[in-house]
Amino acid sequence: MSEALRPMVKSRLYEQVLERLRAHVVEAGLSAGDRLPAERDLAASLGVSRASVKQAIVVLEVQGLVEARHGGGTYLVRDTLDVEPVEQLVERRKRLPEVLEAREALETKLAELAAERRTDAELETIRAALDFMRDEIADGDNGVEGDRRFHAAVTAAAHSSLLAEFMKTIAEQITESRTESLRQPGRPSRSLAQHTSIYEAIAAGDAKKAAAAMRKHVRTVAKVRLLTWVPED
Questions:
Q1: 115, 202 in Cβ contact below 8 A?
Q2: How far apart are CA 117 and CA 202, in angstroms?
Q3: Could you give the CA distance from residue 233 to residue 85 in angstroms, rounded to a whole number?
Q4: Which pTM was predicted?
Q5: Where are any strands of DSSP class E within the chain?
Q6: FRET partner for 111 with CA separation of 20 to 30 A, picked from 55, 92, 117, 147?
Q7: Which of 221, 201, 200 is nearest to 211 (CA)?
Q8: 10-residue averages of pLDDT along the chain (233 residues)
């Protein structure tokens, strides 16, 4: 069947709530740190159930756009609510576990080999990536580019062309998992600390410790809000 004639998807009510919230943030001039109206007030203003509002808030949490504080309301994490389409979230949720499994298998071995094979110049490149990520975080960013540079430098230091090729084939999916992880509250600084542990093990030439540190890191990457989210029909 033609792609154009695929079954039409009816918009969920909470998706309509998401659009209204996005518009409200723009119209009210809200920015990071500002509080959204209470769920009961939103439900009353929009003429929907609190369940629909709660579903919308959860989707915003999953995307790292808001932070719901227990008993303290919901606050913007960013200056806008540029919401990713729910269908894209659902698809990424389906493929993310396999991507993370592949990352653990590949990157654990890459860290082990890097500890055994790295040159002084390659070690300096890894350290420079750490410094870059630290500066990104200090400037208020999530450290995505520094994270990419770090893992690329470890891969290069492993001197395994086949493993590097495997990493290249899933580069797009790795970028998704990186972005997903680093938008979790408190995750950038935690990832930086774990990167530092990996670097220190590689610098010491301790392959076993480097592998263990990388495994711990990738398993932390796997702990994302998206995987605990149950999409509503």
A1: yes
A2: 9
A3: 14
A4: 0.81
A5: 66-69, 73-76
A6: 92
A7: 201
A8: 51 86 92 92 93 91 85 86 86 93 97 98 98 96 97 98 97 94 92 98 98 97 90 67
